[in-house]
Write a structure and sequence with these properties.
Blueprint (H helix, E strand, L loop, with lengths): L1 E3 L2 H13 L4 E6 L5 H13 L2 E6 L19 H10 L4 E3 L34 H16 L3 E5 L3 H13 L5 E5 L19 H6 L2 H15 L4 H14 L3 E8 L15 E9 L2 E9 L7
Parallel strand pairs: 1-4, 2-3, 2-5, 3-4, 5-6
Antiparallel strand pairs: 7-8, 8-9
Length: 288
């Protein structure tokens, strides 16, 4: 496994593989890898001849006062995990933006509609930072396939739309959520939870599964599902940021009874740690 820090060297690495007739899969991460990340690496490996993983905590998706400094970093362990997973190259850029002594970074990428609502309600800066750094990584790594986890559902959809709109010749693949044994969606931020809040956070998945079962069993109004999930989380030790029932691709909020496939997405804080989760609802068999 190779480790590359320089953008030009990374681009040359990919182009050499492509010249040899090989395809390159890419898994962008912010490090602190867990089984969820490893599942994305497995998807990339199954689809491509070579796999690149990037490790970079992107400062432009954090606002002042958020957890940029506290975000867990475990570089030595991450590199070993990549090696064990059969990754061919790890891109660890020293920086993705100009230093303080250089002219300021002025170019950003905005996905105008899909970046609104949901996470953007409380983190309006977030998706501009994500779309910009992913664009920069795509331009450096030049992959054939890129794999993103669907736990960050809105982010996955934003990246898919951005890739289409900017004519990147990259297939964007979504990886299913990987969970702990008690149902909590795997996240690097789980390490920041206290033992008490870690135990309480399991209510997120539990409430989502109950809402899914209800909607797939009988005609159910979106508001009923939202209220049930919200009350369960707020009553279980969390503070809800949002709960939304939405159309899977456009992220448009549903109204009335759930009558076609949809997604319930959640963001909630447990202590100071903000967690995301979602669940897909398939309700075609229920008479409406």
């Amino acid at each position: 496994m190779e480790t590359v820090e320089d953008a030009r060297a990374m681009r040359s690495w990919t182009r050499a593989r492509r010249t040899s007739g090989e395809t390159v899969g890419f898994v962008p991460t912010m490090g602190c890898l867990h089984r969820g990340h490893l599942s994305l690496i497995s998807i990339a490996r199954a689809r491509c001849d070579r796999v690149v993983v990037s490790i970079y905590v992107n400062e432009t998706q954090f606002a002042p006062g958020e957890d940029f400094e506290a975000y867990p970093r475990k570089m030595a362990e991450d590199l070993e995990a990549c090696r064990s997973a059969g990754v061919d190259c790890v891109f660890v850029p020293r920086a993705m933006y100009p230093g303080k002594e250089e002219p300021a970074h002025e170019t950003y990428v905005d996905v105008e509609i899909l970046s609104k609502g949901l996470c953007a309600q409380t983190r309006p800066h977030f998706f501009r930072g994500v779309a910009t750094v992913v664009t920069k990584l795509f331009n450096v790594v030049e992959p054939d396939v890129a794999v993103f986890g669907k736990k960050d559902y809105q982010q996955w959809r934003v990246i898919r739309r951005m890739t289409r709109d900017l004519n990147f010749a990259i297939e964007i693949v979504g990886g299913d959520i990987v969970r702990e044994e008690d149902g909590l969606a795997m996240s690097s931020r789980n390490l920041l939870l206290t033992l008490e809040k870690r135990a309480e956070a399991t209510v997120i998945n539990r409430s989502l599964r109950e809402a899914k079962a209800l909607a797939e069993r009988q005609p159910t109004a979106c508001g009923v599902l939202v209220d049930a999930v919200t009350q369960a989380i707020n009553g279980g030790g969390g503070v809800v940021d949002y709960v939304q029932v939405m159309e899977p691709e456009s992220l448009t909020p549903y109204e009335g009874n759930v009558s076609s496939p949809c997604v319930i997405a959640v963001a909630a804080k447990f202590g100071s740690v903000r967690l995301l989760d979602n669940i897909e609802i398939m309700c075609e068999g229920v008479k409406r």
